[in-house]
Each structure stands twice: as C-alpha cells, then as structure tokens.
Design brief:
mainly alpha, about 75% helix
C-alpha cells in the first residue's frame, strides 16, 4: 500500500526530480522493504550477535538496514523538493521528520545489544507512518483547491 501511495501520490505535486527520486525511493525502500523484512523474519531471539545467522536473518537485516538508512533521506529529499510557498508547512514537517528519524536510526545502530532497540524501531516506524499520514493530508488539501 505504501508503494502504491508513493507512486500515485507523486502525481499530486509539481513535477520535480527531487520529488520523483524521493517518492520512488520511499515506495521501493520502505514499501517493498517492509514486505521483504516480513517475508524473511528474524531468527529466534533476533540473533543480534549474528552467530551462525540463517539466510532469512541475513535478508531481514540487510532489507531493514537499507530501509532505515534510506527512508529518512528520501523524506528529507521530498521536503527539499517542495520549495513553493504553498507547501512550506509540509516541507518543514518532512525535513524535521527525516532528521528525527535519522537520530533514532543512528541510536538504534549505535548499540545493537540495547534492550531498547524494539522501542527505537517502533519510534522510527511511527515517524515513517506519520509522514505518510501528513503527506496524505497534504494531497487531500491540494486536491480540493
């Protein structure tokens, strides 16, 4: 659904290279990345030390790494691509959400054995979902004009 949202949502904004890269990036890395991490689950106990990881664990970790490292970048890119005054609020929101997401991604990655990693992941996912919700409201607002 996120992938479809990004591919179709792009049409509601002015054509721009940064926006295309950002929306396609979120659609691919967050939308499809979430599917891949769901299809290939963690090993029992999450195997944080990666001691003899299964193929599923390796794919899960690589997909999650790409998703968490690139999605905030694409959110920021979209924010920077919306320079017109009618999108000023959404521009600021996108940049703040992208930077805040990166903070939690780096916090998550700085100590993989932390007991708070599950919370960090939920916070990151919250920010990604919150950005999608804000984007949907922006599309609805501009579509009614």
């Amino acid at each position: 659904m996120i992938t479809l949202f990004c591919l179709l949502g792009l049409n509601h904004f002015q054509p721009n290279k940064l926006l295309k890269i950002g929306f396609y990036g979120i659609g691919i890395f967050y939308g499809l990345g979430t599917i891949v991490t769901g299809i290939f689950p963690c090993d029992s106990g999450c195997n944080r030390e990666l001691i003899e990881p299964s193929f599923s664990q390796v794919v899960h970790n690589f997909s999650a790494l790409m998703m968490y490292q690139l999605t905030p970048f694409f959110i920021i890119l979209i924010g920077l691509g919306l320079k017109k005054s009618i999108y000023l609020r959404f521009t600021i929101q996108s940049v703040i959400i992208g930077v805040t997401s990166y903070f939690f991604v780096f916090t998550l990655g700085s100590d993989l054995s932390s007991e708070y990693n599950g919370i960090y992941q939920r916070i990151i996912e919250f920010f990604f979902g919150f950005w999608v919700l804000l984007c949907a409201f922006e599309i609805k607002k501009t579509a009614s004009q």
